[in-house]
Amino acid sequence: MTFDSFAKPTPQTTDLQATFRIVPQTTACEPLIDDLLDRTFGAERQEKTVYRLREGLPAVESLSFVAVSEDGDLIASLRFWPVTITGRPAILLGPLAVEPKHQGLGMGRALVAAGLKAAKQQGHQLCLVVGDPAYYAPYGFIPACPNGLILPGPVAPERFQVLELVAGAIEGVRGLVERAPEGRTTEGRKPERSVVA
Ligand SMILES: CC(C)(COP(=O)(O)OP(=O)(O)OC[C@H]1O[C@@H](n2cnc3c(N)ncnc32)[C@H](O)[C@@H]1OP(=O)(O)O)[C@@H](O)C(=O)NCCC(=O)NCCS
User: Fold this and answer.
1) Which pTM was predicted?
2) 96, 105, 135: which to mutate for ligand 1, most atoms within 8 A of CB?
3) Do the strands 175-179 and 149-150 form a parallel or antiparallel pair, or are they unpaired?
4) What's the total number of domains in the chain?
5) If you take atom 28 of ligand 1, which residue's CA is the nearest one?
6) 152 falls within a domain
7) Which of 13, 65, 117, 165 is the right S-S partner for 110, CB 3.0 to 4.6 Å?
8) Domain membership flag for residue 171
9) CB 126 within 8 A of CB 169
10) Residue range 181-191, pLDDT digits in tens
11) Opening angle at CA 129, ends 2 and 15, nearest 5
């Protein structure tokens, strides 16, 4: 399955959209998101290698989404962080988290599809993730280590994956993934309007 075909609404995501909305995140959401991440990943989440790439940098604002219930409760969050691969800009998907009582309903998949669609529309070329390959392979993510990409710390190699948002974007891109330079949070352009699922 290609990324584009996955990004189209499935019957499951269409049903979900009647109950939940995926909307751009505001800064007011951030304490709620931190609390959700602590509960879903554990407070030690910040010791993971991916957090070294996020330290001191804001997420890509135009790629920060939350899912909210009809009552306006925050149910899930997805953000992307800017990184570089030997100087070339890329984005790092995550953290992705869904409130435990709403897990397994397709919300995570709907958020990832919406986020990747927006990333592509905004001109990003390469997306990285550290996560379960079974969850991310349907979007087109492939193992990153065999493609010569290296993270600046320990990670289970099979969990480190890369997705071309533009065909051929991975060609010639090898080496160390690093924190994006301060002040340059993204290469992608701002959306002309908010992109929601
Ligand atoms: C992982 C998570 C984001 C998935 O979101 P979700 O809304 O519960 O998942 P969805 O309903 O979209 O997808 C459900 C499918 O994903 C699978 N799945 C759920 N969590 C998974 C995981 N950690 N690894 C692999 N597959 C997973 C389910 O088995 C289910 O598969 P099926 O459709 O074949 O039965 C969510 O469970 C969560 O927040 N977990 C805690 C935080 C976390 O581990 N995040 C990992 C991000 S890398």
Assistant:
1) 0.87
2) 135
3) parallel
4) 1
5) 104
6) yes
7) 13
8) yes
9) yes
10) 875 545 554 44
11) 55
